[in-house]
Amino acid sequence: MTTTLTHRMLPHLGRYRVDLVLLLVALVWGGSYLSAKVLTEQASVSAVLALRFLVAALALLIVWVMRRERLPSRRALGVGVLLGVTQASILWLETQGVAFTSATNAGLIISLTIIVTPVLESVAARRWLPRPFFVAAVLAVIGVALLVSDNGFAQPNVGDLLILAAALVRSLHVTMMGHLTRGQSDSTITLTLLQALVGAVVFTTFDIHGLVTAISTFDLAAWIGVLYLGLACSVFAFLAQMWAIRRTSAARASLLMGTEPIWAVLVGVSLGSEALGFIGAVGAVLIIAGTFWGQRIEASHRLNVG
User: Fold this and answer.
1) What is the domain range of residue 73?
2) Does a structural domain hold residue 6?
3) How far apart are the first and last CA of the chain?
4) How far is CA 257 from CA 48, 263, 287, in A?
5) Is residue 71 part of a domain?
6) Which ranges carry the EamA domain (predicted)?
7) Most distant CA pair in the chain: distance in Å?
8) Distance between CA atoms of 195 and 192, rounded to whole angstroms?
């Protein structure tokens, strides 16, 4: 009986492990806003992103060599470059967008990824998720709206359009990653290294002067921020995200990573001396409720359809 119970629990434990990894990715990325904000006050967006990807690429290259990974196949090379382009686009759009809009607008608009991703995945698979899933997704978005609108919703501007574009590209990126890597034998480390190399080349080429200036002027605190963005937010998060998405659906991953605004606010409150009022707290509760409700609906749906 104990053996039977153990076998029944193993799939659930595996699923929760994937969920935990994706939540940790959301936590790490939530903390990236404060680091990026501080760094972009000292250097250009492209220079900061170049340093982030260069650090990530170097760390991944060391891991790749130590693990004696094989050279990527032609298919893996194409997938890695394609995902690298979309990942670089997301980060550029997000960072530039935040520079032109309010944090309230940015947090709300980027959360649209939660809804767009399952729509894209359903269209690609020609199989719609149950309606309650979208209700849960909308509930989470409403929660984000309350969370980030604690101080009022600002008028839309060019920055809002950039963040909207980032949300759309992020949804496309997550969906593509799931469909292009799930069931394939391509090394996760190799694919992540290729993405980092693409970002490093793109942003270094775009602003090499700003990169040199940043390297020569950054102090210890700034370099700690760069290492956080490069190692935690890029190396760990990219590897963990790809590992997890290979073991779940893009829609489920998007819901879990959609908790990123919660972690961003918690980091802002604890480290950035920002205030969270009653409305924001209600929003956080709605996000958590919508996310976990959506998880259960999506997991049940996947089991039913086989």
Assistant:
1) 33-305
2) no
3) 26
4) 23, 10, 11
5) yes
6) 19-148, 158-292
7) 67
8) 5
